[in-house]
Amino acid sequence: MNVSVISGVPFGAGGQRLDAYCPDTGSQASPIVLLWHGKGPDERDVLAPLALATAAEGVVCFVPDWRPDAEDAGRTHLRESVTFIQQHAADFGGDAASATLAGWSLGGKTAVAVALDPAALDGWRPRAVVAVAGGYTTPDPLTGRAAMDRLANSDEPASSPIPIHLVHGTADTMVDVAQARALHAALRRRNWPTTLTELDADHAGVVMTVYDPELCRCVPSDSDRVVSAGHQTAQLIAQAATDPSTSSV
Known about the structure:
This protein is of the alpha/beta class.
């Protein structure tokens, strides 16, 4: 499917920018995905290969910059990105009422927080969450709590569940796949709709990239193994956006 990329769209009072990946699906509005990058400041470009592959599956994908090193840990940027898709998804051929939230690494951890805590974004909730290579034992920048701590508190009422789809590489040496397995098990104990997909990839490979130590950032990879893993991640995100409850157990 042909995908048009609209780069550098400003959003929010601080002038952060995002890229919109828009598939050619005709006149019908498409489901949308808001895709948050990891802890590197303003690294929307890192997720370009994944976003392009996701959009090619028929969903509009928005990838905003945000700065985890900001004074508020990036909360303002994350909130502004949600406001932007609510107000402007239709301008890019998307349906704001059919929004899935996805994230990689720190972005994935934060996406899970939105699912678990309706107050994280003032009541806004996506149809589903896809968390890629996230860590769930340390606090996220939106709520200041760890997902595993929240789920371990049996006295805390469970919020209305939305599907949480976890994706993790079995060769991840930065965030062990055991974290995704533990979160998946904890969600199932609470009868939360959830899936876990384990891929033959490391922390960067699961989003179709490889870490470049000279640049201190992830860059696109043409390795068959990496490309295959990244495409699987893209398909899972698109599937969640199209049918958020698919195979949730």
